[in-house]
Design goal:
This protein is of the alpha+beta class. Helices cover about 30% and strands about 25% of the residues. The protein is built from six helices and eleven strands. The two termini are about 20 Å apart.
Length: about 190
């Protein structure tokens, strides 16, 4: 699954963990706190990470991609003009069994479910599903994303710089972004995200 904004809510958490518990491989690519253009949405997503990981759901958070705007970089990214030449994830897609692909405007969050008018297509095409999967795997690669993991019960972010893997024990993103994410969670804005 790929979504710029991912807030599973209790029903999504039950569904995704249930699928993972049943042996289905579930991987999700979304924006990291440092890359998102809406830190408040990240605040709605963050409380679900530990439970998802405990059930075997794989989480990848796209790193901030300096200089990826203006047509360069993987096609999963879009230019975020208010941030100069940086880009973040904006794609929304699901690949089912490497056979079907859903592509559309639907974010996996309460706002898309309850308020927005969203569209998408489900295509039964192994070729398209494989291409979307390749793009997702490209975005999940260690130089471009953080693999969120549990280490001794705590979240860590595994990534690669200069060809070397390393683990961060603090979530990447500045203090202002952390505050915005925390504040949206404290205020209980999840339904509005």
């Amino acid at each position: 699954m790929i979504s710029a904004y991912f807030v599973p809510g209790p029903p999504g958490l039950v569904y995704l963990t249930g699928r993972a518990d049943a042996g289905v491989s579930v991987s999700f690519l979304t924006n990291s706190l440092e890359a998102t253009d809406v830190p408040a949405v990240h605040g709605g997503y963050a409380p679900y990470r530990k439970a998802l990981l405990e059930h075997g759901v794989q989480l990848f958070e796209l790193r901030r991609q300096p200089g990826a705007g203006g047509g360069s970089g993987p096609s999963l990214f879009r230019s975020a003009s208010y941030r100069g030449s940086e880009s973040s994830l904006h794609s929304k897609a699901i690949i089912f069994d490497r056979q079907k692909a859903f592509i559309g405007s639907f974010n996996f969050d309460p706002r898309s479910v309850l308020w927005n008018t969203e569209v998408g297509v489900l295509v039964d095409s192994q070729a398209l599903a494989e291409r979307v999967r390749e793009l997702a795997l490209e975005g999940m690669a260690p130089p471009l994303s953080y693999a969120v993991r549990l280490q001794e019960g705590q979240l860590v972010w595994v990534t690669e710089d200069d060809g070397k893997l390393h683990t961060l024990t603090r979530e990447p993103g500045n203090g202002w972004r952390r505050f915005n994410a925390w504040f949206s969670d404290i205020l209980g804005l999840e339904r509005l995200l």
